[in-house]
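Deviation from plan, reported transparently: 2-aminohexanedioic acid complex.
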Amino acid sequence: EKFGITQALEELGVKNINNGTSTGADWFSSGGEIESYSPVDGALIGKVKATTAEDYEKVVQTAEAAFKIWRTMPSPQRGEIVRKFNDELRRLKAPLGKLVSYEMGKSYQEGLGEVQEMIDICDFAVGLSRQLHGLTMHSERPGHRMYEQYHPLGVVGVISAFNFPVAVWSWNTALAWVCGDVCVWKGSEKTPLTSVACQNIAARVFAENGLPEGISCLITGDYTVGEMMTKDKRVPLVSATGSIRMGRKVAAAVGERLGKSLLELGGNNAIIVTPDADVKMTVIGAVFGAVGTAGQRCTSTRRLIIHESMYDKVKGAIVDAYKQLRIGNPLDENNHVGPLIDKDSVKNYQDALKKVVEEGGKIIVEGGVLEGEGYESGCYVKPAIAEAENHYEIVQHETFGPVLYMMKYSGGVENALELQNGVTQGLSSAIMTNNLREAEKFLSVEGSDCGIANVNIGTSGAEIGGAFGGEKDTGGGRESGSDAWKVYMRRQTNTINYTTELPLAQGIKFDL
Ligand code: UN1
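Because the crystal trials were delayed, the predicted structure below was used instead.
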C-alpha cells in the first residue's frame, strides 16, 4: 500500500476510490466527472462529480435554510461547534496532512503544517466567538444611547486555490461560522478530494450536534461553477484566493451586483538583503521561501534584492544551498522539494526560464524537468535561479514555481525599496538587516507597500494571528487573524431615545 494513502482516505471517509463514482459528501454534485491525479506519482486517486446549475440551486437553498437556524444560535455556542470541529481536525491531522501532501504535492511536513493552520484558526475563532465587539458612542442628543453591533451576512462564498487546499478554506469558514454565516465552498478542481474530506468532517460535526449540514456546503468544478456564486445576489460576500486574472473577474462580477469581495491574489515577494544582513539567516529564509511548496505559495520568495557589497557572498551561499536540495516524493521526509501541481504548471515554469534568458537574464542555477525513477508523474522540476532585472516582463509576473530572480542594488535601502515596490503585486516582503535605521525605514510609510512586511524573517510562513493579504494587484483583502472577521459581518449603528422628546440631530428644529 502506497504511502498509507488508502488508509488515510478511509479515515477521512472519502469513499469509493477509483471505482468511477463519487467519493462521499455527494448531495451537491451530479454533473461531469472530475478526476484527481496525484502529482506525486501520477496515479488517479479518485473522482468527484461537478456541480451543475441545478445542483447549485439546491445548494444555495440548503445554505439559506441553514442560515435561518445558525444565525439565531448565540455566537459562543457557534464557537463551541467550531471547537468540536477542531477536535476532529486534531484527531485527523495525520491523514488529512497526508492527503494534502499526496493530492497537492507539498511535503508531508507542510501538509501537517497546513492542518495546523486550520487548528490554529479554529482556536482563534472559538475565542473570537466571545469577542465580536462593536463600539458604543456618546450621542449628541440628550437621553439617547448609540452603539453598533455586528450581524451575520448570510451565505458566504469561498473560492480557494490548489496550493493551500484546506487552510485557506478554514481561515474563511472558521471565522464566518462564529460570525453566524454559512459557507458555500468551491475548492480547486485540482484538489477535489481534500475538499471532500473537509466537507465530510464538517458535515459529521454538524449532524452530531443536530445542526443542518447546509452550514457548510461544497460545490465542485472549474471557474464556471465559481461564476454561479459570483453572479448570485444571494451570496453577499465572495472570498476568493487565486490568480490576479481570476480576481479581476470575481471583483467585476461581484461588484456589478454590489456585493462584497475579499480578494487574496498573486504576490511577487522580495527579500531585501542589506550590508548588515546575517548571511546564515538570509540563506535559510530565502531558500525555504523560494523552494518550499515548490515555489507554489502566494508568499513564496520570487526576488532577492541584494546590496552590491554582499552580492557575491550571498549568491555563493545560496547557490551552495541549492546544491544540497533533495527533490522527490514529498511523503518521504528526506526530500525538501516535491512536484509541481500538474504539467501545465511545469510548462509555465519552463516558459519562465526561457523568457528570462530571452530578456537578458543569466541562469546561475540550472532548472529542468526530472525524469526517471520516482519522477514518473512528470511534475518534478529543479529549483532554478536567474540573475535578472526588475523591469523584465517575466520578473514582473508571478510564476507559480521554484524560480528565483536575483538582483543587485547600490546605495541606501531606499533604492532597494524602489525595486521591491516596483511590481504590480503587494503581498509579502522582507528585509534582512541588523541595522535599526534600515529596518524602521522598511516598515515606515516610505517603506514596503505590501500587506505583510517582515524583518529578519523570509516572505512565507505567516502566522494565522495576523491579517493575511496584500495591496495593489494582490486585491486588498485581509483574511485570518486580527480584525479580519469584520468583513464577514454587517455593521449596524443603533440609536435609542429613552426620553419623551424627539430632538433631531445636528440641532435641527422642526416644530409641528
Ligand atoms: C497562500 O499561499 O495562499 O504565509 C497562503 C504562508 C502560509 C499561507 C500561504 N501561512 O506562507
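The two ends are 85 Å apart (CA to CA). We consider this an acceptable substitute for the interim report.
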